[in-house]
Amino acid sequence: MTDGTPAQFFDGLTAGRHEVRVALSDDRQALQIAGDSLPEPLRWPLADLRALSDTSDASRLTLTRHMHTDDEAPRDPARLVIHDPELIAWLHRTRPGLFRRDLHKGTLPKLAKWAAGSVAAVLLMLFVILPAMADTLARIIPIEREVAFGQSVTRQMERFLGGKRVGALVCDNPEGKAALNKMLTRLTDSREMNYEISLQVFDHRMVNAFAAPGGQVVILRGLLDKARSAEEVAGVLAHELAHVENRDATRNTLRAAGSAGLLTMVLGDFTGGAAVAIIGEQVLSASYTREAEATADEFALTMLENANVDASGFARFFEELEKMEGKSAGLPGYLSTHPVTRERAARAEAFAAGQSGTRPILTPEEWKALKAICD
Amino acid sequence: MDISTPSASMPVHYTKDGSAIFKLGFKTGLLTFATLGIYRFWQKTRIRKFIWSSTSAGGDAFEYTGTGLEKFLGFLIAIVFLAVYLGVIQMVLFYLGLSMLDQPDPFDPMSTVRFLAAFYISFFAVLPFLLYALYRARRYKMARTRWRGIRFGMDKGAWGYAFRAIGYGLLTLVTLVTLGILAPLMSFKLEKYMTDRSHYGDARFQQGGKWTGLYPALKHVLIGIGLLVLAGICGALDIPALAIIAGIVGYIWIFVGFIYYQVRSFAYLTSHKVLAGGITFDAQPRTGEVIKTYIIGGLAIGILAGIAFAILGVVVGGLTAAIGSGASIGSMIGIGLLAIAGYVVVLTLVQALGLSMITQPILAHFIETITIGNPEALNAIRQRESETGVDAEGFADALDIGGAI
Q1: How far apart are alpha carbons B297 and A88 in whole angstroms?
Q2: Given an 8 Å threshold on Cβ–Cβ distance, is A111 in contact with B333?
Q3: Are B147 and A15 in contact (CB < 8 Å)?
Q4: One domain, residues A173 and A305
Q5: ipTM exceeding cut-off 0.85 for this assembly
Q6: CA nearest neighbour of B87 among A121, A117, A119
Q7: Residues A211, A74 share a domain
């Protein structure tokens, strides 16, 4: 290779193209670049050679040099485009560092600094600022707005459970409703409630109950079917009343509105990102909810105590729940929104053992009427 | 615009390689999922490097010099600022939305609209940032593009862009009642704002032409709207058959009209750009070609995705049946994970197919129709300073804009 192979050279100073010839230098340590339009031949040491990666055309190789510059990568702005397949193959074979990604000095410390900063900012937002703000906002929101929002949530829920119109699922057997109200009055008599409770039963086989914002409490028929005594229902009701008084639903909705935006932003729009975001939100909300649930349990037990209702019904309900959860029992505690059921049962059991002077919350007839509220 | 010495024009080429870009897209897509999204910065970089290197003018390929690491860093920086802003703003707006709410009823559509409006009000808080990020993303792309070793670049001006975009957007919205008649004004002025701040080396680009020059491009949208108006009149006059036909034709006409507008306005705006030194451009993309690519690519991807999902369904269903009802929790979770992984693989496949069968061919068609006039003048253009201060699209990524490339 005395004359060398033809190539194009761009000097990185002007957009003009230099037709050059490239050859290996006599000491075989550098590429010799010579052309009529170049003032003098250039010498590019082999050790400094770098090539562009992820290019589409395998028949051309664009070379540059490792060099300290202000560019995004430490590279010489000059480019040498070679087409000689032999030379390209030889460079691939003998230069293992051809496609190396060099970094500017100080890149990694800078990266570490910002990574720590952004993780701290996100954690601070998710676990301190957003919950605190949600707390404050949940306290200052006008009650009638909260009630309006709660009613809308309840209706959405009714629709979600298969109701075709407002009130389609509401059970309104008069004797049943009377029994339900008696239960509510007995539980709430002993304390001043912040909200006017709107208590309903939905005709759905799911064993569940929920408290929407603004005092909207809904029990699903499945729970009444499954319960063996009125005390079990009373325990669950007391638990939901606790959520109402603590404004848990409002607070959670506000917090989720903030953190959902944050999570999607962090995860970006990659394929499967939505799945990861949902799991993330689940883990996050589980960690808040577990705390709220534990507080609500304590609140419920106090409420039962003040109303002289036997808490062993509440304990029995948890045992029932645990049996039903049998299949998903393998789920670790940090993933489930409620504290591990067995622990809750034990807590209620212990509490019930210390109770005295309890009296039934409903007469057997009233209990029967409540169970038949959807008929 | 004076073309002093008429010389042979320089063609711009795109070397299409569908299978290579598919492999690259699929491989990097899987890596992105496996790293919970972190690899996306490198994915975007590698795909851009591929596309830029496939494009050449006068035989010299373009080069993309952005790096995955700087994008990741830009993203981290954006997160620190946006985490605080977005989290707080979103919650406050949600709260305000909640306070405006009155007795919503999910069975009444108007009430649902109000309810949704209350929820999506937070979008408007992010809008200035979105526009800001849009300009920054283009500026970053320009700063990382080179041809013949010379850098492209763009001046600062993202807030000016956001401000103008909102202004023209409001104007267009106001005139929406008059059939969006001012849409070309917005397209033209915003493109001019960006072009006039763009450089190749030490030479500045300039957007020539007039905003009214975009009206011919809008004609099919206007015809479509006319047909819909006709459908409305026929409906009012109780001629249902004509109303339905005019409605359907008008709807399709508008849809095609929008593509026509995009293609033709690109052609107009490109053909009226000038680079200092009298370098001119010409672009003749064809709407039919773009629509054909969409239809054929869309159908092929739909069929392939259908087959892939069917195979996945059969495999997961078969496994579930084989294990039977007495399955242990472990094997149930195993099948569940397999199903999720399969689902993600198919989605990644679809994304890579889209890149290879729609994005690349359309891009190739646009690029192939471009020619550069007076290319001799290019030789005199000198290098510009490198730009390190750009946030490498961090805001654009965090705000989910920018798309595949």
Answers
A1: 36
A2: no
A3: yes
A4: yes
A5: no
A6: A121
A7: no
Terminal CA-CA length for chain A: 98
Mutation target among B110, B148, B376, B382 for the A interface, most CBs of A within 10 A: B148
Any domain includes A195: yes
Cβ-based contacts of A264 with chain B (< 8 Å) = 400
Q: Are residues A234 and A178 in the same domain?
A: yes
Please answer yes or no on whether B382 and A268 come within 8 Å at the CB atom. Answer: no
Query: CA Rg, chain B, in Å?
Result: 25
Which of A152, A250, A327, A331 is the best residue to mutate to test the B interface, defined by the most B CB atoms within 10 Å of its own CB?
A152
- A48 near A40, Cβ under 8 Å? no
Is B393 a member of any domain?
A: no
Contacts of A134 in chain B (CB under 8 A): 91
**pLDDT tens series, chain B, 405 aa:** 344 444 589 999 999 888 999 999 999 999 988 888 889 889 999 999 999 999 999 999 999 998 888 888 888 888 887 777 776 776 677 677 666 655 445 555 555 565 566 556 656 667 888 888 889 889 889 989 999 999 999 998 888 999 998 888 887 776 665 556 788 888 899 999 999 999 999 999 999 999 999 999 999 998 998 898 889 888 888 888 888 888 899 999 999 999 999 999 999 999 999 999 899 999 999 999 999 999 999 999 999 999 999 999 898 888 888 776 666 667 777 888 888 888 889 989 999 999 999 999 999 999 999 999 999 999 999 998 877 655 666 777 666 555 445
Amino acid at B240: P
Instruction: Give mean pLDDT, residues A157-166.
Output: 81
For residue B136 the two structure tokens come to: 């920054």
Residues of A in contact with B54 (CB under 8 A): 56-57
Query: For residue A287, is it within any domain?
Result: yes
Instruction: Tell me how far apart the alpha carbons of residues A241 and A245 are, in angstroms, rounded to a whole number.
Output: 6
Per the DSSP assignment, residues forming a β-bridge with A32 are: A23, A43
Report the CATH number at residue A32: 2.30.29.160
For residue B382, the chain A residue with the least C-alpha distance is A14
| Cross-chain residue pair B149–A77, CB shorter than 8 Å | yes
Q: Give yes or no: residues A136 and A230 share one domain.
A: yes
Query: Least CA distance to B74: which residue of chain A?
Result: A114
Mean pLDDT of the region A69-92: 90
What are the φ/ψ torsions at residue A65 (nearest 5 degrees)? -125, 150
Count of structural domains, chain A: 2
Among B271, B301, B324, residue at a domain's last position: B271
Q: Does residue A161 share a domain with residue A36?
A: no
Domain that holds residue B183: 172-196+209-271
Of the candidates A70, A75, A141, which has its C-beta nearest B95's C-beta? Answer: A141
Flag if A145 and B101 touch (Cβ within 8 Å): yes
* pLDDT higher than threshold 90 for residue A215: no
* CB-CB neighbors (< 8 A) of A53 in chain B: 46, 49
Q: Compare all CA atoms of chain B with the CA of A277 and give the residue at the minimum distance.
A: B36
Residue A147 covered by a domain:
yes
DSSP conformation class of B355: I
Cα B164 to the chain's mean position, in Å?
20
Q: A307 lies in which domain range?
A: 116-371
| Min Cα separation A230/chain B (Å) | 33
| A38 and A176 together in one domain | no
How are strands ordered across the β-sheet holding A209-212? A198-202, A216-220, A209-212
Helix (H), strand (E) counts: chain B? 13, 10
For the beta carbon of residue B124, count every other beta carbon within 10 angstroms. 11
Q: Are residues B335 and B372 in the same domain?
A: yes
Residues of chain B positioned with their CB less than 8 A from the CB of A118: 76-77, 79-80, 83
Q: CA–CA separation, A31 vs A95, rounded Å?
A: 13
At what angle are helices B40-54 and B68-100 packed, to 10 degrees? 120
For A10, the closest of B72, B91, B149 (CB atoms) is B149
How many domains does one find in chain B? 2
Q: Please indicate, yes or no, whether residues B243 and B313 belong to a single structural domain of this protein.
A: no
Rounded to the nearest angstrom, the minimum Cα separation between A105 and chain B is: 13
